[in-house]
């Protein structure tokens, strides 16, 4: 007699995290390194080195091979420097190279001669970078904002990719979209290294951004769909580690390759190596089942069972009623249900804000490490190393309290950001240490919000809740580069804003329910208690949904 089992029960039977799943996670984790490269590369390719405005009345060396001897960039970067000299030039003394002027003479000229625009262009220091996007296309002074706008357009690509490739993945499968995403990502990434102008470069980066969402989302979903419920938290954090490894490796690559085009090529070309994924990356059995391809799904399950050393009996079949159950439950609820009732509305809006602020501050700190005064390469390395303990510590704190863990790390991140405001510029080490603590707190908090969200939202609207939270997170990513335009108002404004927004998130988290060691809510009535009528929660009428699969446990609907 054949026995029908739902997919979670079959996974438990064949091993929820056996050899098959471990090999799958190797294939899922490797692209995370390249994703980190693409997400953070603008720290180096978009850097703005110290620069001086050329004057048409001043003799300048015409060689472009290196900095002229004794070139005095301290005129704009030193303790007594004048940043305004980067965007305007003194009338000068004809025939006198500015490089030969001492500091006091140069400033005296600035006071005694009318300033003029940089008609002769700019001279950039090559001490740290041989070339960047900013130096090649003069993205300074009146055009300085284009750099930040370009980063925001890239981040907006993640929003577009989430919507576009999310829809396509449901239609064509997780595996196919991952393969397509990696191909487009590598092609456009390499193309960006040969971009003829800034606008083509930004467009290609935008396309790369869309593929980041395609790969991240579908790799995560593919992994969780093949992993048993007991191992999903650990498996999810493992992928985050590889993003951290990419963070660290990028610091070394950027240190060795100081030309932006060569660096862009170096991080993009290796993506073509993933062509072998055509043969090793499995499809999602859950997706096949949801699309009524039951025989193909069972073939994959049996292969996984053999690899895990737990072959499946021939008389076991996937319960076909499972698909109908999921479809019926989902059709009864919409995104509106996230805010329809009081308690659900409060929890939803707070979770959306937490997604937004975590990503806003995470990328706000990560993409502007040059502001902290230390070597940009060393700071990048430190920020990457912080990722490892920040994600590891959550494994120990989450089992004690989701809510307190979220609050604690938000407070740590917010206070550290605010304290950097009070540190003088000449104490760059202390500022970097505080920024590192802030990065530690916000990284841990970002790790927690993924898990906390899945437990706050009830089963019938969990996917909708996490999807909306993800959209809010990407909105934070789009705004992160734009926030730094506030430096035109006050140099301290971005860090003040990051700190206050994070502390507000910590305060709002106090209003969320504690979910550790609690059964997951299946429907909205579980969240609201007796405050809503039975008629408004038709999704509670579940018994008939399980008749085709008597072994189904209603507590494990994912």
Which term fits the overall shape? globular
| Count of the separate structural domains | 2
- Characterize the largest beta sheet: strand count, sense, and whether it forms a barrel: 2 strands, parallel
CATH topology name of the largest domain: Growth Hormone, Chain: A
Please state the second-level CATH architecture of the largest domain: Up-down Bundle
CATH class descriptor of the largest domain: Mainly Alpha
Description of the molecule:
- The longest helix has 29 residues, at 198-226.
- The radius of gyration is 27 Å and the shape is globular.
- Helix 17 (342-366) packs antiparallel against helix 22 (493-509) and helix 18 packs parallel to helix 20 (428-456).
- The strands form 2 sheets. The chain has a two-stranded parallel sheet with strand order 1-4. A two-stranded antiparallel ribbon has the order 2-3.
- 41% of the residues are buried.
- It is mainly α.
- It contains 23 helices and 4 strands.
- It has 2 domains: 5-56 and 118-330, MFS general substrate transporter like domains (Growth Hormone, Chain: A, Up-down Bundle); 331-525, MFS general substrate transporter like domains (Growth Hormone, Chain: A, Up-down Bundle).
- The chain has helices spanning 7-14, 19-40, 42-45, 74-77, 103-112, 133-136, 145-172, 174-192, 198-226, 232-256, 260-268, 277-280, 285-290, 294-307, 321-331, 337-340, 342-366, 376-397, 402-420, 428-456, 462-483, 493-509, 524-528, and strands at 3-5, 51-53, 122-124, 316-318.
- Residues 527-558 are annotated as: Disordered.
- It comes from Salmo salar (Atlantic salmon).
- Keywords: Membrane, Transmembrane, Transmembrane helix.
- Residues 97-517 form the Major facilitator superfamily (MFS) profile domain.
- The chain crosses the membrane at residues 24-48, 152-169, 176-195, 201-222, 234-257, 263-281, 348-365, 377-397, 404-423, 429-453, 465-487, 493-512.
